[in-house]
Amino acid sequence: MRLPAFPDLGTRPAHPWFDLDMTTIGIIGAGHIGSQVARAAITAGYDVVISNSRGPETLADLIADLGPKARAATATDAAAAGDVAVVTVPLKALEAVPVAPLAGKIVIDTNNYYFERDGHIASLDDGVDTVSGLLQAHLPESRVAKGFNHIKFSDITTDGTPAGTPGRRALATASDFDDAAQFVERLYDEIGFDTVNIGPLSESWRVERDQPAYVIPQNREELVANLAKAERATSAAA
Fold first, then answer.
1. Quick check: 64 and 137 in contact, CB under 8 A?
2. Residue 237's CB: how many other CB atoms inside 10 A?
3. Of the candidates 106, 119, 121, 124, which has an alpha carbon nearest to the alpha carbon of residue 177?
4. Can you tell me the distance from the alpha carbon of 231 to that of 28, in angstroms, rounded to the nearest whole number?
5. Residue 195 in contact with residue 9, Cβ under 8 Å?
6. What is the helix (H) or strand (E) element at residue 62, kind and residue range?
7. Is residue 72 within 8 Å of residue 12, measured between CB atoms?
8. What region, left, alpha or beta, does residue 72 occupy, with left being phi > 0 and alpha being psi -120 to 50 degrees?
9. Which of 37, 51, 147, 219 could serve as a FRET partner for 87 with CA atoms 20 to 30 Å apart?
10. 123 to each of 95, 183, 235, how far by Cα in Å?
11. Rounded mean pLDDT of the chain?
C-alpha cells in the first residue's frame, strides 16, 4: 500500500478557523479520556459541558474538580451546547450518540475498537471500515475527525509542552473535512502537542490499536515514521 502524504501542518499559513468563535466543547462520555480532555480544554480557555450514560447528577464530584467553566448535562444537551463536540464512549455504545444536535458540527472521535469489549464488528475485522468512519456514518451531517485515541489518558494533561519545544510530542488526526482536522490541530497545539494529519478517515486505521503509533510518546518525525510502518490486519481475531 502506498503511504499517503502527511501534510506538514506546522508550516502552513494561518487558517480562517483561528478566527472562529468556538468557546464551548460538548463532551459525550466522562470516562478517563473524556475527563482529561475536559481538564485540558478548560486549561486552554474553553467552557465544557460533559455527560455520561448515568445522568448529570452522577458527575457532581467531577464538576467540582473541573471548576466553574464546566457543567454536567445529558448527552443530548452536551451535544447541543457544544460549538464542537467530543465523542468518547465505547464503540458498542455508538448508536446511543445523539444525531440531531450534532448536525453541522465538528465532532472529535477518540474511540478505538476492542473486540473483547465491543464484540466483533465484521467490517472492522476485515479492514473495510474504520472506527471513526463508523461514527461518521452514524452522524452524516457532522464533520468527524479522529483525535486523542492513541495517547494514554493521563498523558493528555501531563505531556504537553509549548510550541517549538525540541522533541515536542505529536498526535495524529484524520478527517474527510479540512476544518475538522484543522480544529483538532488547533486544540492539540493549545494543550501542548504537535499534529500529524493522516488524511481522510479511511486512513485513520494507521493510528488505531496495535499499530506502531498507538499509545507511545513520539515527536512529529517519529509519528510519521510509525504511521508509515502501519500494516492493516484483515481480522481482529487473528
1. no
2. 8
3. 106
4. 31
5. yes
6. helix 60-66
7. no
8. beta
9. 219
10. 16, 28, 9
11. 91
* Residue 109 grid coordinates: 472521535
* CATH number attached to the domain at 22-229: 3.40.50.720
Residue 153, CA distances (Å) to 31, 121, 149, 156 in order: 9, 25, 9, 6
Looking at residue 17, the DSSP 8-state letter turns out to be G
- How many whole angstroms separate alpha carbon 44 and alpha carbon 190? 6
How far apart, in Å, are the Cα atoms of 133 and each of 28, 44, 168, 184?
Answer: 18, 28, 29, 17
Q: Please give the grid coordinates belonging to residue 179.
A: 476544518
CA dist 181 and 222 (Å) reads 20
Give me the amino acid identity at 180.
A
Residue 51: closest CA among 75, 31, 71, 22: 75
- The type of residue at 51 is S
pTM beyond cutoff 0.70: yes
| pLDDT 10s digits, 145-190 | 999 999 999 999 999 999 999 999 999 999 999 999 999 999 999 9
| Per-domain boundaries in the chain | 22-229
Write out the three cell numbers for 125.
475485522
Q: Backbone phi, then psi, for 190, in 5-degree steps?
A: -65, -30
Pairing relationship of beta strands 70-72 and 84-87 according to DSSP bridges: unpaired
Name residue, grid cell 486505521. 205
